[in-house]
Specification:
CATH class of the largest domain: Alpha Beta
Largest sheet: 7 strands, mixed
CATH topology of the largest domain: Rossmann fold
Radius of gyration: 22 Å
CATH architecture of the largest domain: 3-Layer(aba) Sandwich
Number of strands: 16
Low-confidence stretches: 1-21, 28-42
Structural class: alpha/beta
Helix content: 25-40%
Oligomer: single chain
CATH superfamily of the largest domain: Response regulator
Number of helices: 11
Length: 411
């Protein structure tokens, strides 16, 4: 456990004099207000979680869904009596911060939460933003659980950073395993060399291809995740005879640019991405040829179509009742993060960061989540499986459909 700096010590002293056994930031819930309705069984104290994500900007779909998942979990927990700690039950609330998908804004958001006395944080959404605040969390002794930051380097042994998603090296290996199982022998890669998420997935996929005997016939990169022209890269994929191309980008690139441009230069094979491809259907331009989105697949964490456990089916039912839509990957992982916090707090009987960190660091603890039951490994990453999802379009339909193809595991 890393030594806290002077600000952390100051905050700890203040908190020791002002907070009850509920720990974290506690306050009397306002009647008729706040982010979650108080339950009569609770003690009257409130634990406020922090949440950081891109609520505005090009990646706002991630942040708004994370916020929905967090708030749904809080509402459910409060309605069931709150979090049962050693000195009584506490209500939950959330203080949200918008990082706009920008690492600098993410650091500002984290510092603002710490200044407000927050000790338990859900966020951020992307690996780039999350990597900007891991050192802050560790130096300040603030626990954070990222629902969707997949870069391997985000979590290390015995620190304050955890996640409810799997890591990039795992989903890169899942992608290569699926390619091998499907009989592809010549694969290509198009990625962003300057982005933590994209480059990390490229590295993981490349290593797994070597282990599984897949030939990488072409590899091309772009310099930024805001690139809008991919025709040159895919001309080279076509020339190299790639049957499948691994494309670790976000949905805001896949929908309007990468997919239609790959098809426009004659690439007719499979486009395979990772979890960032989820929500591509929201960025398809009006009037686009929807048939080009066939054979676009991505590794993901969660699918409502495979929701078999009571936790998962109840989550889907309650989410649809609350928001009038079907939940996605980000809703589920954020919802899981709140319930992981609840389980850890109840296990240690407190909600201060040091106690919760120790509970989460116990690799024997099990968590029942929407994605199944898991335990953390020694780095704070869940041991879990994945799912392959994709898009399909049939002539005459108004939109493309997102489909679940199969559950994924390593053989």
């Amino acid at each position: 456990m890393k030594q806290k700096n002077l600000l952390s010590l100051f905050l700890a002293c203040c908190l020791a004099f002002t907070l009850t056994a509920c720990g974290g930031k506690t306050e009397e819930p306002e009647a008729g207000g706040g982010d979650a309705a108080p339950a009569e069984e609770a003690s009257g104290e409130t634990i406020t979680l922090g949440m950081i994500g891109p609520l505005t900007g090009s990646l706002a779909v991630y942040g708004t869904h994370i916020e929905k998942g967090v708030k749904l979990a809080i509402d459910e927990i409060n309605a069931a009596g709150g979090v049962a700690l050693s000195d009584g039950a506490c209500q939950l609330a959330v203080e949200t911060k918008d990082d706009q998908g920008d690492p600098t804004e993410c650091v500002n958001a984290m510092n603002a939460l710490i200044s407000d006395g927050i000790q338990l944080v859900v966020g951020s959404a992307t690996s780039g933003c999350t990597s900007a605040i891991t050192s802050v969390a560790n130096s300040e002794g603030v626990v954070m659980i990222t629902p969707s930051g997949t870069a391997d380097s985000l979590t290390t042994a015995m620190d304050f950073v955890f996640r409810t998603c799997f890591r990039d090296s795992f989903q890169g290996e899942l992608a290569a395993q699926w390619a091998k199982d499907e009989g592809y022998t010549k694969v290509g890669i198009v990625y962003c060399s300057a982005d933590t998420y994209s480059a990390g997935l490229r590295d993981a996929f490349t290593a797994a291809c070597g282990d599984k005997g897949l030939e990488i016939v072409a590899e091309e990169s772009v310099a930024t995740m805001t690139e809008v022209d991919y025709t040159n890269q895919f001309n080279k994929m076509v020339s190299a005879g790639a049957e499948m191309v691994f494309t670790p980008f976000y949905y805001d690139v896949m929908g309007p640019y990468l997919v239609p441009q790959a098809r426009s230069v004659g690439f007719t094979g499979v486009l395979l991405g990772a979890d960032g491809v989820d929500n591509t259907e929201t960025t398809i331009p009006d009037g686009a040829d929807l048939s080009v989105y066939n054979d676009v697949y991505f590794v993901n964490h969660y699918s409502t179509e495979l929701a078999a456990s009571d936790v998962s089916t109840n989550f889907v039912k309650n989410y649809e009742a609350a928001y009038g839509e079907t939940p996605n990957n980000f809703d589920a992982l954020a919802y899981d993060a709140v319930y992981v916090y609840k389980t850890a707090m109840e296990a240690c009987g407190a909600s201060d960061a040091a106690s919760v960190q120790a509970a989460l660091a116990d690799t024997s603890a099990a968590y029942d989540t929407t994605c199944g039951s898991f335990s953390f490994d020694e780095t704070g990453t869940p041991i879990k499986n994945g799912v392959l999802m994709g898009y399909t379009y049939t002539a005459g339909d108004e939109d493309v459909s997102k489909i679940t193809v199969k559950a994924l595991s390593l053989s």
